[in-house]
UniProtKB/TrEMBL annotation:
<comment type="similarity">
    <text>Belongs to the nucleobase:cation symporter-2 (NCS2) (TC 2.A.40) family.</text>
</comment>
<keyword id="KW-0472">Membrane</keyword>
<dbReference type="InterPro" id="IPR006043">
    <property type="entry name" value="NCS2"/>
</dbReference>
<feature type="transmembrane region" description="Helical">
    <location>
        <begin position="188"/>
        <end position="205"/>
    </location>
</feature>
<feature type="transmembrane region" description="Helical">
    <location>
        <begin position="130"/>
        <end position="151"/>
    </location>
</feature>
<feature type="transmembrane region" description="Helical">
    <location>
        <begin position="97"/>
        <end position="118"/>
    </location>
</feature>
<dbReference type="Pfam" id="PF00860">
    <property type="entry name" value="Xan_ur_permease"/>
</dbReference>
<feature type="transmembrane region" description="Helical">
    <location>
        <begin position="402"/>
        <end position="423"/>
    </location>
</feature>
<dbReference type="GO" id="GO:0042907">
    <property type="term" value="F:xanthine transmembrane transporter activity"/>
</dbReference>
<keyword id="KW-0813">Transport</keyword>
<feature type="transmembrane region" description="Helical">
    <location>
        <begin position="313"/>
        <end position="333"/>
    </location>
</feature>
<keyword id="KW-1133">Transmembrane helix</keyword>
<dbReference type="GO" id="GO:0005886">
    <property type="term" value="C:plasma membrane"/>
</dbReference>
<feature type="transmembrane region" description="Helical">
    <location>
        <begin position="20"/>
        <end position="44"/>
    </location>
</feature>
<protein>
    <submittedName>
        <fullName>Xanthine permease</fullName>
    </submittedName>
</protein>
<feature type="transmembrane region" description="Helical">
    <location>
        <begin position="339"/>
        <end position="361"/>
    </location>
</feature>
<feature type="transmembrane region" description="Helical">
    <location>
        <begin position="225"/>
        <end position="246"/>
    </location>
</feature>
Amino acid sequence: MKFKYNLNDIPPFPELVLFGLQWLAIAVPTIIIIGNVVSGLQPGDPFFRINYLQKLFFLTAVILLAQITLGHRLPLITGPAAVLLAGITASQGTSTASIYTAIITGGLALFILSATGLFSRLKNSFTPRVVATILILIALTLTPLILNLIVGPGTSTTPLANLLFALSFVILMFVANRFLRGIWKSTLIIWAIIAGTLAYYALFPETHLVYTQNLNPVSLFFKDLNYNLTFEPGVIISFMICFLALSINDLGSIQSLGELIQPDNMPQRITRGISITGLANVLSGFMGVIGPVNFSLSPGVIASTSCASRFTLIPAGIFLLALSFFPSVISIIGSVPSVVTGTVLIYIMCSQISAGLMLAFNPTTGFKFDNGLVMGLPLMLGIVISFLPGDVLNTFPPALRPVMGNGFVVGVLSVLIMEHIIFKEQKNTDKKALTQ
């Protein structure tokens, strides 16, 4: 594919800024959505939410700039990892320090695996059926969280009104996705957040805009760092499984973009990119925020704009860095109603399911009955565990609760057992049959 600007080209300054603003419009919605969700899961006042978002903006900016200049050096956007959101959601009831200690541990393990070359051996365990199941599991195991955002007790209007609003809103998003083209389609999420927020406040005027008063116009936010490391084995095991999925997500994002723009030294780019992702998660754990990952939506943006220059992400990183020091601005752009957040998450998770199904129904390999069994059991177990009542989870031993009570972890372990143990002999038989 030919591009107007190739990987190492620097567009003229006006175009550089415009492309940077486009990447900014793509990065901000995910930061706001996941940041609002995670900060809402942790105890704290409105100032805590703003401080959390500031840290998340700062971390995303630093890692984005590091990846472009030192890491994979590809035009890949970075943002909070949804798979870690699944881990944090399932670890409620444990201490915040233990969660971020587990993120530090997982990030360090990922860095060591990548830097030493051991990750290349580990990734062979993640076959297309396993990866497809993981992609779908992320969406399905976040369903209880999405449901609580839309009709939970913290919402201001009646559950029925919120549900009707969410259904109408998500259908309109898919209509827009069907007919929009180019930059408008690439930035649909941010326009949906703006339109959905304005519509919700207009339809339900009793809902008050959440704006934190008495904020300094500019502030430093390097406080409340997580130096209280708390190692809980169950939480660490749970997040190690999440980091396995995160590493495959990171690898897939880098490889998919590599196939599009065909850069040189792809093995080195993958090693550097995943290594920096690991270090970024170590940093995020110390800062007390959810860790980042490279997003897989970048190839679509590049194909629609015909610009593959990595330098266009530098203005986006600078804008994100500047925003992180203005809490009043973040307070305004972060005042998205939980119903809108939940509805946009439905849209995003539908894309996640679509990616998983595309991988599962690969036309070159086909889809067999055994494929459905390998994927079906983990998906069912993940859903069942995710919807277990709280009083049932409380009967589990505390050490096992972060693992056995985490639908995503149970699903990933199940698909690995189904793929590499239960159906391993059948795969070998199939190979012999093909050679005869």
